[in-house]
Amino acid sequence: MRLALDAMGGDYAPANPVAGVVQALRQYPDFTVILVGDEAKVRAEVAKHDLSGVADRVSYHHASQVVEMGESGLESVRKKKDSSVSRAIDLIKEGKADAVVSAGHTGALVAAATIKLRTLSGIHRPGLAVVIPADPKGFLLIDAGANIDPAPEHIVGYSIMGSIYVREILGYKEPRVGLMSIGTEASKGNEFTKSCYELLEQAPINFAGNVEGHGLFKDPVEVVVCDGFVGNILLKTVEGLAKSLFQWIKKEIVKSPVRMLGAWLTKGAFQAIRKQTSTDEYGGSPLLGVNGVCIKAHGNSSPTAIKNAVRVAREFVAQRVNERIVEAIDTHHEKLAAQ
Amino acid sequence: MRLALDAMGGDYAPANPVAGVVQALRQYPDFTVILVGDEAKVRAEVAKHDLSGVADRVSYHHASQVVEMGESGLESVRKKKDSSVSRAIDLIKEGKADAVVSAGHTGALVAAATIKLRTLSGIHRPGLAVVIPADPKGFLLIDAGANIDPAPEHIVGYSIMGSIYVREILGYKEPRVGLMSIGTEASKGNEFTKSCYELLEQAPINFAGNVEGHGLFKDPVEVVVCDGFVGNILLKTVEGLAKSLFQWIKKEIVKSPVRMLGAWLTKGAFQAIRKQTSTDEYGGSPLLGVNGVCIKAHGNSSPTAIKNAVRVAREFVAQRVNERIVEAIDTHHEKLAAQ
């Protein structure tokens, strides 16, 4: 696989993208990487690492601009043609790379990928698919914010793409799809989800009906579909609450030496939970539905998170996820046409 | 205050509603209660308690039906005219009670209150207002699920009602209102929230712009407004995740005796957090905007939660919250008309 890495994307760029890809180069022998971004800065960062044995798998592609957090993702495609994320996508378009990993501006990645690569045949809008930790295993949330005002048909696309992704990449057999709503009965929901519900009943998936927040974290369905507005709120709320709960625990612990001793004795438990709930482990979130492999890593990605995003990109290419999505959508449309 | 208690509402009815109101009768000398529900069952439950000194403040109102969880709230008003929640609302309408507390079916309470009591002058739809724990103090989420497909104007009503409620009942000075969205910039959001944003800028509130999930649990704004679909998902997701995280911690702790010892030493910290995050302490959630005082307690309310819901009802009546809402809405409409 030939990876284009947005070396300037994310809160800790270029340090963490570079450190992460160096880890990945050592761990996975089967890919090469093009580091996209301000070449002087990226080379200076790379110089901090020992590249012996892997240096010949690294090349550079200069990009003079970076999309900043406050900017409009859509406008960035036009106004910052030489941004690291746009140039990384260009490399896919030009056939010089097989996949992009970026920890930068989500909207810019979504816009650049959608405009430059277009969507897969039969898919109208891409969706950002994020794994949310749960017990005993995480579920895939799609869409986590790529498509803010979708049509019900887009949700059907998400359900099919999500099912294929969790089967091929997460190894979930016969995945079920739940529709995010406010009650498990079919009659519960808003006008939008009620329309989605009817379409999902016809879709070539294991539709499990509505799911609600109480059911997300213990034995959840494998794929949860929703519009990008609800999905983004859900994702950020889950991240915010988990972070705050651990901070509250810490704040209470440090109030007494006895509690601090107790915390030290239980630290293995908390490490296990941190690992279980860490976004680092799941690596990147694929933008499903674009005609190319685009993996979004979290803005605050650690080197480990970047390494795992590279792993996801490798598996996505190797499992031919996009080809399988196109096949599934084709079959679905043929069936609908025959009805 | 004359309280009508839905004695048959909730997962543990009539036991917990009865036990909770007995606690409240002892703690607050300034109210009387009408226990609404199957009189034989309710009297049998009351007989388990010592009512000495408070018995003359308790009366009964028979209601032969209960709205079950799977039923449609709206249909229940027509089909189960003799349900405990409908009869409790009737008592307000007939001037025999000042407030209702129910831990039963939310939709049935919302429908019965809206149909029988109507909305306050100038308010088109009621909203369920729930306090969500945060650090250092909780925020009010409105609407948590009363109004699933609202118009932007309804959100303005929520912002005004929520501001008055947190000022009068929670003692928050100069409360700010945030609009639940997917980015703090004004340009972020879906079509619906963008319409809401414009109206909220004109509303007689301290509008703080958009808020997102990352900002909800540490120093949040005092009031967060959203449509009832998003609010209900948010509420249940927060409850579900908090519960699961504590279960995961417990599961890891019991894996070793050392960890169990450590947990015993830290248990004060966890008790403090449980108290901070417990819905019991905040008591009931008011249905703001109906022409009457209706407090929804959680379906799984403990006796303490019921007692605190009674406390909220008392304060709501004493602070004349509804009168203040009507005044604020009147002033707002006069200003708009004068523009």
Automatic annotation (TrEMBL), chains A, B:
It catalyses: a fatty acyl-[ACP] + phosphate = an acyl phosphate + holo-[ACP]. SUPFAM superfamilies: Isocitrate/Isopropylmalate dehydrogenase-like. Pathway: Lipid metabolism; phospholipid metabolism. One of its GO terms (biological process) is phospholipid biosynthetic process. One of its GO terms (cellular component) is cytoplasm. Pfam families: FA_synthesis (PF02504). Its main location: cytoplasm. Homodimer. Probably interacts with PlsY. NCBIfam families: plsX (TIGR00182). Belongs to the PlsX family. This is Phosphate acyltransferase. The gene is plsX.
